[in-house]
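Appendix C reproduces, verbatim, an entry submitted by the partner laboratory led by Prof. M.T., so that reviewers can inspect both the input and the predicted structure.
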Amino acid sequence: MRQFILPDLGEGLEEAEIVTWHVNEGDRVVVDQPLVSVETDKAVVEVPSPWSGRIARLFGGKGDLVKVGAPLVEFAEGTQGDTGTVVGELGHQEKAPRDAEAPAPTPVRTLQVLPAVRALARKLDVDLNLVQASGPGGTVTRADVERAAKSLAEAGPAEPLRGMRRAMAQRMAAAHAEVVRTTVNDEADIDDWRKGEAGERRLIKRIDIGIAVDTEGGLIVPVLRNVGERDASDLRHGLDRLRADAAARSIPPEELRGATITLSNFGMIGGRFANLVVVPPQVAIVGAGRIDQRVLVHNGQPAARRVLPLSLTVDHRVVTGGEAARFLVALKSDLERAS
């Protein structure tokens, strides 16, 4: 027997969720035949077979999470385990993985609960640490437990985060822990833009922009490459393709990595300004809010003008306040010149 372990399918990948198996136990497969589709960080990826042979065992079913380096498929022929599939190196002694689904421990507090009320809480499956006490001296009453049980029932059962939402939660938590955010806001008068034309940015150095795309499964951020060297028509075609691929969840993992800055067009949904999240290793994210008409002074006279709210969030450990403000001024000036 020899085992094929789940390879590292992307930067920092710790696990993947099984979406569907393309083979069954007992099947014979050839090299590069799709074995399974798994959902990684924002994409569904087909994992091909590294060998030809007969499938002896499949590890996991639909919806199961498989850790990188854990067995995925066992082949009937051969005696050696797979050691060359993972990108990078795995130590011989695997560290105990962090349980990303385990909630933070609930703070313990001193509870004043009568035995009958405690028994009721057990019967209704209510955590007494989460109950607001209304009795004398902070005593938890029967009514408190019943109220908590009703609230839990109305909220519905807790569902573990899976797939894209799980990956999004992990990235957002890591970003919050690793980045010191500073946000700068402004507005750009874009009333002189030609109708039906997309704005363009002129960049001196190569810039790869992550475009935040909202989907039913969560936020996907595919990367639009080398935007400074592409004309408006090519950029529009690239944006349309990214949007279609995001909706179909068919974006290759390599197109989700390597952005130097991210653009969030949250204003398409609503909102003027936002305190955005910077995802390492990036140090900045730009947000475009909802375009509205506002009365501004234009050529010395009050006039109704279309205004685009802008938000810029940076990692203040790397980017100074002056650098952030100058960048926002340059962005605003460039947008206002677009016509």
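The mean pLDDT is 78. Additional entries are available on request from the coordinating office.
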